[in-house]
Amino acid sequence: MSAKSPTISPSDVIARADALRRDLSGNFRDQLVEAMYAEAETIAKRAVTAKGQRRLDWDQRLDRLITSPIFGLPIMLLLLSIVFWLTITGANVPSQMIADALFWIEEQAANLFTAIGLPWWITGFVWHGVWRGLAWVVSVMLPPMAIFFPFFTILEDLGYLPRVAFNLDWLFKKAGAHGKQALTMTMGFGCNAAGIIATRIIDSPRERLIAILTNNFAPCNGRFPTLIMLATVFVAAAFPPAVASVVAAGSVVMLVVIGILFTLIVSAFLSRTLLKGEASAFTLELPPYRRPNIKRILYTSIIDRTIFVLWRAIQTAAPAGAVIWLLGNIVVGDQSLAVHFANVLNPLGVAIGLDGVILLAYVIAIPANEIVVPTMMMVYMGTGVMTDGPEGAALY
Predict the structure, then answer these.
(1) Hey, where are the domains in the chain?
(2) Integer angstrom CA distances of residue 245 from 184, 236, 346
(3) Which of 88, 111, 206, 339 could connect to 335 by a Cys-Cys bridge, CB 3.0–4.6 Å?
(4) b/e code 30-64 from CB counts within 10 Å (16+ = b)
(5) What's the CA gap between 384 and 374, in Å, rounded?
(6) What three-state secondary structure class fits 115?
(7) What does the pLDDT look like over 297-338, one tens digit per residue?
(8) Which one, of 87, 91, 66, lies nearest residue 77 by Cα?
(9) How far is CA 346 from the centre of its chain?
(10) CB contact at 8 A, 186 and 161
């Protein structure tokens, strides 16, 4: 009669697994995957006969450079800098041409309204408020988007974005987050909503929540035109024109780097405090490089991204322009509502290093960041309409 085998409970299995886990090295999973691929390569060598010495194919040669621990991140920053520089440099002339055309339409239409005897406030509200807000947003956003989105889509179509995730994987591992968060963050550069949805690829609920909470630190492509505009206005303007575009591009790249750093810092904080736990591991297989599909690039970048983002901006810019005009032209006492609100906000603005006018402009222009500066100029100069300088004030 055979002896009865001991009963093993699930808790015993879990306890044994925990004990064995402590004996494993930190890179055990990497070693396991490496051993699997080495065995697969050994089997392939036994099964396949090749004449002469096998050379690395084009993908492998390129990946040795692009995913190199030494050159991978610098190449990524260089590519981003080139894309931003081309965007900033190429958008200047089209932006000015679009602005001139739209403001010419505003002038002619306003003169027509005045000629047919419509009240001044209707002319001002429609053309100097709603239309001017739209004109500013379209002229500032459309050219950068029309240039940036195709470049970004080309990198996406080539298969470069997974290489970016590969280069950043070890940083997320150091931060105690899942390596796949590098993928979701990279997708966040295209669209934060898509990046958050993509966190479903992370199996651990804890690490998935970390990826969701930090994805917003990656500036999506809808924010890049605004970042480019702000970098051009506030940073590059302080430098000579010969280097202004380079400085603006470098500023945007620095903002991207800061976003990545904040993602890592917050991920590390969450993984060690509120969302404490053991980091998971995963294996990232890089897809082959693909020849860009021009039709898909044009459709994705122009229709699916540029037009979509621009339409959303227009929907928010029109009401914002109307509100700004009303605040600048409704007078209570001897001052406009905009001045009254700026005076109320001034203590808070001064406390954070701004003033009431700047804070008011940021609050009003939340739907469309492109009209922050024109709104500030309107309140500072008391013109009643958005303007970009003294010459604009002289027209009214």
Answers:
(1) 72-272, 295-394
(2) 30, 7, 33
(3) 339
(4) eeeeeeeeeeeeeeeeeeeeeeeeeeeeeeeeebe
(5) 11
(6) helix
(7) 777 777 777 777 677 777 777 888 888 888 888 888 888 888
(8) 66
(9) 31
(10) yes
